[in-house]
Design a protein that fits this description.
Length: 411
């Protein structure tokens, strides 16, 4: 808040024609507060930083910025095309300009690979992997699963390929997917969304997402390469909420923002490319920016504020938020600072290269009855992580059917 207030003060000092006021709302109450303000006709002009999912909770209420981009000749070529496209889906126009981006990567512990006699995963997106027998194979989820089995170890030192492996006493897990949201699990395999059809009101499960969920379920209950739900929630096993931070996980898909906790995993972690699916590599993407509400009575002035936040004030704000700059010219300096807390050299280029593989449409994109639908997704995800022996084909169809019922009711 101190940084944000300083930015507002600097803007007001340099823009005497505009008076910018600052209102900070705690994250936990931000969505409800904004909804109340909008209902009373008292919404702010500029909102942020807000992620794609947070913004979609107010779908249809954001200003299309394209006319203002055209009028001011704002340079959109300074951003990767993939990040620009994140904000131009769903028929709303260009509702955002890239700011802070968090590409996903595969975090891994080099020491655990060395201990198992395995080559480290490739850092090149769409790369190949050399198996222990010398064969060169695609770096895909089939290959990653084979490695995860070798890197999952019980208390007696047996890996998950050993007939005497004890799944009740795992002390090291091979592969932890980012499990905050089932849509994320799917997006690591291929970009997609639930809403389909010309009207966007038909619920469908992308085929790649269904496959990813079955793989996730098997990772937990059949291969034992990922934590069960109860293990994940056990603060003695997973005190920080992200298993990789414990140092007892060999590979983990997560976003760049998770570097805040990876030091707890030891000084041998690094970044690699996420595996491919069906010949295609995808980096699930988180992104924050500032947006302007359609209800703004001062859209031209709001756009001037917006470009200041994304331009002159971006260095200070991005440092405060821990966000990788979407602006390519600012990225190298950001990673110099990002390296400072760590003793081992990190291949930050992996994150930079991952931007080109962003999931578009983003997994957090619009779906009808957004908040209620998200609650349903969380309910199913929690169930699958806690319940062995499920018929996943039936479960996935149940999810689709219940989501469609929610959408039909919301019309």
């Amino acid at each position: 808040m101190k940084v944000e207030q300083a930015v507002v003060d600097a803007f007001n000092a340099s823009h005497p024609n505009i008076k910018l006021t600052f209102e900070a709302i705690p994250y936990e109450t931000a969505r409800d507060t904004l909804a109340t303000q909008l209902a009373s006709g008292n919404g702010p002009d500029v909102v942020g930083p807000v992620g794609i999912g947070g913004a979609e909770a107010f779908h249809g209420q954001w200003l299309d910025l394209q006319p203002y981009i055209d009028k001011t000749k704002y340079d959109m070529t300074q951003f990767p095309e993939s990040t620009v496209n994140l904000y131009n889906v769903g028929g709303e126009g260009q509702v955002g300009i890239p700011f802070a981006i968090y590409p996903s990567v595969l975090f891994y512990k080099a020491g655990l690979f060395k201990e198992a006699g395995l080559a480290e995963p490739p850092h090149e997106w769409g790369g190949k992997y050399t198996m222990p027998d010398g064969s060169v194979v695609d770096w895909d989820y089939e290959t990653a699963t084979k490695l995860a089995l070798l890197l999952t170890v019980d208390k007696n030192g047996k890996d998950a390929t050993d007939p005497s492996f004890d799944p009740e006493n795992v002390v090291q897990w091979g592969f932890e997917p980012q499990r905050d949201d089932l849509r994320q699990v799917g997006a690591y395999w291929k970009a997609g969304q639930f809403a389909s059809g010309a009207d966007g009101k038909t619920a469908e499960i992308p085929a790649a997402w269904a496959e990813s969920w079955k793989w996730f379920y098997d990772s937990i209950w059949t291969n034992h390469t990922a934590m069960t739900g109860p293990q994940f929630l056990d603060t003695t096993l997973n005190p920080d909420g992200y298993p990789f931070f414990t140092g007892n996980v060999a590979m983990s898909e997560n976003y760049l923002w998770s570097t805040y906790g990876v030091a707890n995993a030891g000084d041998d972690w690094n970044m690699a490319a996420t595996p491919s699916y069906d010949g295609q590599t995808t980096a699930a993407f988180n992104a924050d920016t500032f947006r302007i509400l359609k209800s703004s009575k001062h859209p031209d002035e709001a756009f001037e504020v917006l470009t200041y936040l994304l331009g002159d004030a971006s260095k200070e704000l991005l440092q405060a938020y821990g966000g990788m700059p979407a602006r390519v010219a600012d990225q190298d300096a950001f990673f110099v600072t990002a390296q400072e807390p760590f003793t081992q050299p990190i291949d930050w280029q992996v994150a930079k290269d991952g931007v080109a593989f962003a999931d578009v449409p983003n997994f957090e994109s619009y779906m009808p009855a957004y908040n209620e639908s998200l609650d349903l997704i969380i309910t199913f995800g929690t169930k699958w992580q806690a319940t062995p022996g499920l018929d996943m084909d039936k479960e996935i169809e149940d999810l689709r059917t219940q989501m469609q019922a929610i959408w039909d009711k919301a019309e």
